[in-house]
């Protein structure tokens, strides 16, 4: 059973503390000093995109901005660099959510990939305009890895919203 | 109750597009004021206190991996290293013994000449914790900060030369910009010819001597040391070795890539040198202009950075 909007499975409403908890866990993963390892996904961008697609009425641009600032501080980037990129990402994810939710997780990942890629491109453009060196193409691989992670994430992040399946004649789904 | 409107059915904030425009403007303003104007260091410090526990927790796995790899490093390698260190210590011991005596003598002579005594520079040993994740710059994080007396602008060296300069200080950590960072510059001198120049990071792990004329007296293999003109770095610290010299007649300046002398991109312990004291007073501005040495102003600027 796929817990998407076209699924026959009804989910419990999301708990906001769980949303923020997952965002902080993603922030923690972003803070792990991997140095200049190639293809490390931007976890905050991924989880933020997930919740912005899933709950467009509850989470969006404001959270993107706040977590962007926290990421900037933690990874030593220019202040506002991640914030700018996440604000755009959150907006786009919010706008796309009505469409994306009708697809299977794999197709959703394909929809999210351009968004994550765009958020990387925005950061590179901003820093290049400020006169930084080009970090190399490997930086963009992170977006592809993140899009792959969307599929497992789709199940993990929705786990608390599943309810026990107990069908009877009064409750057929 | 004039003008009372019924409560809305659905509670909604401002329109998404309005919110987007607002936050985009705010973040662009932040970016500009951070990158160009550097107004936000206090703000960053405040936020960094919030982020610090999470950062420390996140650094633990990296620490663990590093320690584990150390633990499993072969016994043979350690023995070789041990032997090497012992021989180096013996070599150094003789010079150290002489140094004590020389320092005494120097003090006496200086006293005789009534010269100002050179104040010893206070220094702090720190450890490089990890490389900052920002892929656009070359920065590392040290495990000591404000509380250990580290201040922005201090020079950092390891056992074989200059590594970089402290650019940001947090209460518990500090950020060290490596010499190979694109924005980092250091005033230097070429030992063989005494030529003064400015060394810039070129971003790819190398450095570059810029603004040296195409016919300047530089050869591959030349040692480059700090000139101390900036008032930040002590004079005579090894910085780099000239890798090659490309002289193109079409260009005004030679292209001179240099290899860093210190283990700039390696993890190790480093020494954060205190600020130089007892600097001679700056000459008045007009005098500098009369001398017509434009490079001097640039060096001073690079030193302040």
UniProtKB/TrEMBL annotation, chain A:
Its main location: membrane. InterPro entries: Cell_shape_determining_MreD (IPR007227), MreD_proteobac (IPR026034). The chain crosses the membrane at residues 12-29, 65-89, 109-130, 137-157. Pfam families: MreD (PF04093). The keyword Transmembrane applies. It is found in: Cell membrane. It is a multi-pass membrane protein. It comes from the Bacteria. GO terms for biological process: regulation of cell shape. Coiled coil: none annotated. The keyword Transmembrane applies. One of its GO terms (cellular component) is plasma membrane. Keywords: Cell membrane, Cell shape, Membrane, Transmembrane, Transmembrane helix. NCBIfam families: shape_MreD. Belongs to the MreD family. PANTHER family: ROD SHAPE-DETERMINING PROTEIN MRED. This is Rod shape-determining protein MreD. It comes from Zoogloea ramigera.
TrEMBL record, chain B:
Residues 278-305 are annotated as: Disordered. GO terms for cellular component: plasma membrane. InterPro entries: Cell/Rod_1, Cell/Rod_MreC_2, MreC, MreC_beta-barrel_core. Residues 128-273 form the Rod shape-determining protein MreC beta-barrel core domain. It comes from the Bacteria. The chain crosses the membrane at residues 20-37. Keywords: Cell shape, Membrane, Transmembrane, Transmembrane helix. GO terms for biological process: regulation of cell shape. Gene3D superfamilies: Rod shape-determining protein MreC, domain 1, Rod shape-determining protein MreC, domain 2. Residues 293-305 have a biased composition (Basic residues). Residues 278-290 have a biased composition (Basic and acidic residues). Involved in formation and maintenance of cell shape. Belongs to the MreC family. This is Cell shape-determining protein MreC. It comes from Zoogloea ramigera.
């Amino acid at each position: 059973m796929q817990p998407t909007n076209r699924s026959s499975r009804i989910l419990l409403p999301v708990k906001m503390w769980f949303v923020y908890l997952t965002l902080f866990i993603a922030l923690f993963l972003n803070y792990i000093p991997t140095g200049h390892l190639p293809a490390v996904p931007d976890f905050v961008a991924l989880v933020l995109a997930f919740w912005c697609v899933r709950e467009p009425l509850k989470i969006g641009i404001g959270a993107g901005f706040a977590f962007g600032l926290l990421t900037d501080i933690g990874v030593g980037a220019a202040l506002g660099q991640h914030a700018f990129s996440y604000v755009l990402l959150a907006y786009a994810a919010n706008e796309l959510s009505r469409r994306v939710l009708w697809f299977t997780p794999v197709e959703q990942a394909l929809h999210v990939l351009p968004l994550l890629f765009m958020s990387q491109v925005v950061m590179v453009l901003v820093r290049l305009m400020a006169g930084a060196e080009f970090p190399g193409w490997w930086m963009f691989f992170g977006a592809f890895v993140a899009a792959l992670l969307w599929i497992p994430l789709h199940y993990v992040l929705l786990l608390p919203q599943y309810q026990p399946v107990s069908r009877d004649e009064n409750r057929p789904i | 109750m004039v003008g009372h409107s019924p409560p809305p059915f659905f509670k909604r904030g401002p329109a998404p597009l309005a919110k987007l425009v607002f936050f985009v403007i705010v973040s662009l303003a932040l970016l500009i004021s951070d990158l160009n104007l550097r107004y936000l260091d206090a703000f960053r410090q405040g936020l960094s206190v919030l982020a610090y526990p999470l950062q420390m927790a996140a650094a633990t796995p990296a620490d663990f991996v590093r320690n584990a790899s150390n633990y499993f490093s072969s016994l043979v390698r350690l023995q070789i290293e041990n032997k090497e260190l012992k021989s180096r210590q013996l070599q150094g011991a003789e010079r150290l013994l002489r140094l004590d005596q020389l320092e005494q003598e120097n003090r006496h002579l200086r006293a005789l000449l009534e010269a100002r005594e050179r104040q010893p520079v206070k220094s702090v040993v720190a450890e490089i914790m990890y490389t900052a994740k920002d892929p656009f710059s070359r920065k590392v994080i040290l495990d000591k900060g404000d509380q250990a007396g580290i201040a922005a602008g201090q020079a950092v060296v390891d056992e074989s030369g200059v590594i970089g300069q402290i650019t940001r200080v947090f209460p518990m950590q500090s950020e060290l910009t490596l010499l190979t960072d694109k924005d980092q510059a250091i005033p230097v001198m070429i030992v063989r010819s005494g030529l003064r120049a400015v060394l810039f990071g070129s971003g790819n792990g190398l450095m570059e001597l810029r603004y040296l004329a195409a016919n300047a007296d530089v050869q591959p293999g030349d040692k480059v040391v700090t000139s101390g003109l900036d008032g930040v770095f002590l004079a005579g610290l090894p910085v780099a070795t000239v890798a090659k010299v490309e002289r193109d007649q079409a260009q005004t300046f030679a292209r001179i890539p240099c290899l860093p002398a210190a283990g700039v991109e390696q993890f190790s312990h480093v020494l954060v040198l205190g600020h130089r004291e007892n600097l001679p007073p700056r000459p008045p501005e007009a005098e500098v202009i009369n001398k017509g040495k434009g490079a001097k102003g640039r060096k001073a600027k690079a030193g302040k950075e």
